[in-house]
Amino acid sequence: MKVAVLDINGKDTGRQVDLSQDVFAIEPNNHAVYLDVKQYLANQRQGTHKSKERAEISGSTRKIKKQKGTGTARAGSIKSGVFKGGGRMFGPRPRNYSFKLNKNVKRLARKSALSIKAGEQSITVLEDFNFETPKTKNFTAVLKALNLENKKSLFVLGGSNNNVYLSSRNLKGSEVITSSELSTYKILNAGQVVLLEGALEGIESNLSK
């Protein structure tokens, strides 16, 4: 699968790269994609929700009325959830929402996501670049050249690049990650995936196993 390599001015460099068919042109597995996205979102949940139950409420422990003869239901404590100010019955408790997912399923999901984007013509290959200093306007100029100003974009670098990362950090619609941080959710959440040349080898070696 041949794709033209662009420079940061959005112009064709005259070179092409061959994207692996095993990574960018497979039959997408929707269930694997669903599971990987579900795990990613589950891992974002803090799980710190908590409400007070009757044992944690401050209040009198006196039996509020006699057991029989009132014609109403029995009541032993003002802290019961049936009374105003009482504890909540079956309320939320802290819990861990994360769950395990097989590595092969995660790999299949990421290949499926990249194949979906490739099929939609939503993958751009960009030659490696760097900035002398971190400046948002430099990164904005790259977005403008690639017609991505008003589009959600995901830039995938071959390795850590502090100047490029810091230049993009203030821009809501763009995210910069390394190839090792690539996830199914981030691929599908972006309108356009921009792969730097230096990232291709890492992506294909990680996902071709």
Distance between the termini: 19 Å
Based on helices, strands and strand pairing, what is the structural class?
alpha/beta
> Overall mean pLDDT score?
93
Low-pLDDT regions: none
Structure annotation, total helices: 7
How are the strands of the largest sheet arranged? 2-1-3-6-4-5
For the record, the count of structural domains works out to: 2
- Helix-strand string: EEHHHEHEHEHEH
* Strand segment count: 6
Radius of gyration: 27 Å
Work out the strand percent.
5-15%
Provide an overview of this structure.
Helix content is 33%, strand content 15%. With 209 residues, the chain is of the alpha/beta class. It folds into two domains: 155 residues, Ribosomal protein L4/L1 (Ribosomal Protein L4, Chain: A, 3-Layer(aba) Sandwich); 41 residues, no CATH class. A six-stranded mixed beta sheet has the order 2-1-3-6-4-5. Helix 4 crosses helix 5. GO terms for molecular function: rRNA binding; structural constituent of ribosome. Belongs to the universal ribosomal protein uL4 family. InterPro entries: Ribosomal_uL4, Ribosomal_uL4-like, Ribosomal_uL4_dom_sf. Keywords: Ribonucleoprotein, Ribosomal protein, RNA-binding, rRNA-binding.
